[in-house]
UniProtKB/TrEMBL annotation:
It catalyses: Hydrolysis of alkylated DNA, releasing 3-methyladenine, 3-methylguanine, 7-methylguanine and 7-methyladenine. It is an enzyme of class 3 (hydrolase). PANTHER family: DNA-3-METHYLADENINE GLYCOSYLASE. Its EC number is 3.2.2.21. InterPro entries: AlkA_N_sf, Alkylbase_DNA_Glycosylase/TA, DNA_glycosylase, HhH-GPD_domain, HhH_base_excis_C. GO terms for cellular component: cytoplasm; protein-DNA complex. It comes from the Bacteria. One of its GO terms (biological process) is base-excision repair, AP site formation. SMART domains: ENDO3c. Belongs to the alkylbase DNA glycosidase AlkA family. This is DNA-3-methyladenine glycosylase II. GO terms for molecular function: alkylated DNA binding; DNA-3-methyladenine glycosylase activity; DNA-7-methylguanine glycosylase activity. Residues 146-311 form the HhH-GPD domain.
Length: 320
DNA sequence: GGCCAGGCTAGCA
DNA sequence: TGCTAGCATGGC
């Protein structure tokens, strides 16, 4: 549903409504950002609004979103201040539906989780939580590589510095600067020496630039991934230096939105699993995969909820 | 100052 | 196949 209209005297050149599958908790989505910062987003918690730049094709477009309705009847209003062609409208809506996990039905997953006693409290506490995905696979991979072995806050700082160095800037009517994530071409043109002053390690700088070049020269074809099985994707991408299993699992989970990934090497997941399952020792990767067998075919969602238990503790949320 | 962060590679048995 | 030192930096 798209139309043109006047609001508060301003011309909103494109607007539409995105339907969502309940239950959907905007509050949880936004609260997660407190512990998982994303420098691309401008969030207003009081008004449940979010603004960021999406690339529609190659064109960066500033998009304003308002979360509306209720947990059981949720929807998103979106608008832009530029006109969009019909195909751009379709592409933008498809991207938004993907990014906000609009079509994921949590009900059967909760039913599944309730069979795992330690998960019951999480299905109640985090009801309606789902992932906000990355908007494309290039930036998803780059952000995941950046996030290897460093804390989330530092990773967000490095991501922001990369965007400031090589991304596109858009300024809104209030003067706020919005960063669009760099294209693969822009990153491919960089040298590791460009990233070292931003506090990237030498190796991480090489990994990211090599990856961008592999896409530009066709060694890696991201569009083909959507047709491939999880195991094939792991095999294909871990052939690249700097990309290990954890990184590809995160790409499939945060970038592709696949439902059954278990990044078992993840330190946050190890800590969370120990906490939620009340284990005497921190589980290793093998132990996590063993426990996770009971979570099929929804291991991504289990992982998210276990991570979020850690996030809630960090945010000092009270558990009533 | 020591240890931990949403790991990966290279080298070695 | 499986194990481990080394990597680099920030935050507590």
């Amino acid at each position: 549903m798209a139309n043109h209209h006047i609001k508060n005297g301003e011309m909103l050149l494109y607007s539409s409504v995105i339907s969502l599958t309940p239950p959907y908790s905007f509050e949880r989505l936004l609260r997660r950002l407190e512990t998982h910062p994303d420098p691309q987003l401008l969030v207003n918690v009081q008004e449940s609004t979010l603004r960021r730049v999406f690339r529609v094709g190659a064109r960066p477009i500033l998009v304003s979103l308002q979360f509306a309705g209720t947990m059981e009847q949720p929807f998103i209003r979106l608008h832009t201040e530029v006109t969009l062609s019909a195909s751009e409208q379709q592409l933008l809506e498809k991207t938004i539906r993907h990014v906000f996990s609009a079509d994921l039905d949590l009900n059967p997953i909760y039913e599944h989780m309730r069979q795992q006693q330690p998960m019951v409290i999480l299905t109640e506490r985090f009801r309606g939580l789902r992932l906000m995905l990355d908007s494309d696979l290039f930036q998803s991979m780059v952000k995941t590589i950046i996030g290897q072995q460093i804390n989330l806050a530092f990773a967000a700082a490095l991501t922001q510095r990369l965007m400031e160095l090589a991304g596109d800037v858009m300024v809104d009517e209030t003067g706020h600067k919005f960063m669009a994530f760099p294209t693969e071409e822009a990153v491919a043109r960089l040298e590791p020496t460009d990233l070292r002053p931003l506090q990237f390690s030498q190796r991480k700088a090489e990994y990211i630039i090599d990856y961008a070049r592999a896409i530009v020269n066709g060694t890696v074809d991201l569009d083909r991934l959507w047709q491939m099985e999880d195991d094939e994707i792991i095999e294909h991408l871990t052939a690249q230096r700097g990309i290990g299993r954890w990184t590809v699992e995160c790409l499939m989970m945060f970038g592709m939105g696949r439902p059954d990934l278990l990044p078992a090497a993840d330190i946050g997941l190890r800590n969370g699993l120990q906490m939620v399952y009340e284990l005497a020792e921190k589980p290793d990767e093998k132990e996590i995969r063993r426990i996770g067998e009971d979570w099929r075919p929804w291991r991504s969602v289990y992982s998210l909820y276990i991570w979020e238990a850690v996030g809630a503790v960090r945010r000092k949320e009270t558990w009533e």
